[in-house]
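Running co-folding for adenosine-5'-diphosphate.
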Amino acid sequence: MPADPVAKWEEFLRSRYWDDILKLADSYPDERSLKIQFSDLEKFDPDFAEELMENPDETIEAARTAILELDLPMDVYLDRAHVRIVELPRNFKTRELRSDHIGKLLAIDGLVRTATEVRPKIVSAAFQCQRCGFTFFKEQTGNKFEDQNLKCMNQACDRGGPFKLLLAQSKFVDAQKIRVQESPEDLRGGQQPQTLDVELEDDLAGRIFPGDRVIVNGVLKSYQRTNPQQGKSTYFDLFHKGVSVEMKDQEFEEIDISAEDEEAIMEMSRDPEIYEKIKDSIAPSIYGYDDVKEALGLQLVSGFEKHLPDGARIRGDIHILLVGDPGIAKSQLLRYMVKLSPRGIYTSGKSSTSAGLTATAVKDELGDGRWTIEAGALVLADKGIAAIDEMDKMNNEDKSALHEAMEQQTISVAKAGVMATLKSRCSLLAAANPKLGRFDKYEPIAPQINLTPALMSRFDLIFVLTDDPDTKRDSAIAEHILKSNYAGELSTQKPWNPEISQEDIDNALTVIEPAIDPEMLRKYVAYARKNVFPTLTEEAKEFFLNYYVGLRTQGQDSNKPVPVTARQLEALIRLGEASARLRLSREVTGVDAQRVVKILEACLRKVGVD
Ligand code: ADP
Ligand code: MG
């Protein structure tokens, strides 16, 4: 500790944060947080910054004292102001935390899985002595309420009670607990995400929702586990006492695109083969499925959201369903798409957690018996792609919640007085197996899919993939798989087998090397989503209209498994926009219209709307 940390803070605040302090004083007490960049403190005095990391509780307390001692030109007393340190040099994952980190200031990176309701927490309890009537305060710093061994502060009385807690005179802050889970993109194959509970107080509470991506800067604390039978345990658990929260919006739009990147993107968009190339860059290790991959390319950019003057909103995200025989690479396609999307979440309908796919309110230990809202996959994938494998196996509750999630793109939780609406603005990519395991090709397809028409009609595109033996195709797939395995084998062996050169690997990789590398594709997609909002040309409108009216007329006279509704028209518009976006065009042309009608037509024909 420097000799006088309060003086150190005063010097720092005066020289570097004076304007911020004046601003805070101006809007106080509505605003109560003074944000301090860690790097500013580090530039000011590296040792003091180090001290802050090592002894955060004392150092931050000193900062609060310093704020109170500043001579402000206005008449405010900033006693409820907080120092919120942001942008620490390093972000930790939950799994990296060790006992050495206890008591230190750390940044934890993750995804908010659950959040309790905001409730008052007592920080200063007013006790009234029932003998002499004197009222005194007892600060409540920990999580356990301290009302034992009190003594009346009236020196003339000095008795040990009884005392009455005066709620009106006591001081409370808003408090909330959240549970942060490691982001899926930080997990290596098969790892289970670990979680850390975080306590947020005062103006930090109530601003975070399940599904948010955050960096929580805080002081890591431990508490002793107890067990009703054995009492106190020697094992401790960790929690994080929040100092500040940074929102991290890693969505497509937020990817950094440099000037050179932008040039490369423009160049790519002028390539007449861009559709081919994007298609070939999606899951290159999977052979075939050109039509599916083309649609997945459209899904990456999707259409864009529209707000109608009457308040209604039309989603832009494209939902795709793949139904097909087992073992034909559906799961592989899903996993690949999740990797391509910065906010991709992969989940299986079978192995849903208690929050399932959507969200739920649970009463668990995080909330000390309070209700907690827990986000499921579709909330966690907000603004990304949610891949649901084995969708046919999910429970009925999830199935019905999906209706809202897919159309309104919100998820409502209403349970035991907890009401919340969470956002789920994601594209859904789902896979399902036929009801009986395999398609019977002599029977109509639709009844063999274990999903309701209402659910099916919410998908923009449904691909039916059957595994029919076809010697030419089979041997092509076999060759493709053998080659990709060989390339994988070479690169696994390379570290210990000096005979294998990079050139061998590169040669072997040619079959599965994507035309556009994933990093660049992600940038391209991000650029398109951020900057391109195409409008329909007259030609495209007319094409869609004619096609749609034709569909409706055909649809009238027979019992269609997937009803033709206005949804298909909206789907066409979305797909058309996506098609224009893929070449960064401001216009959806007749060619775009034809391209997407062809894709939709192929899907409908297979499902049985013809
Ligand atoms: P599904 O989810 O449809 O049951 P999987 O995605 O689990 O099937 O695929 C099973 C395996 O077969 C995977 O390892 C996949 O790579 C391989 N496979 C199936 N079809 C193809 C294909 N067309 N090209 C390359 N690999 C394939
Ligand atoms: Mg599968």
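Result summary
The two ends are 78 Å apart (CA to CA).
The longest strand covers residues 163-181.
Job closed.
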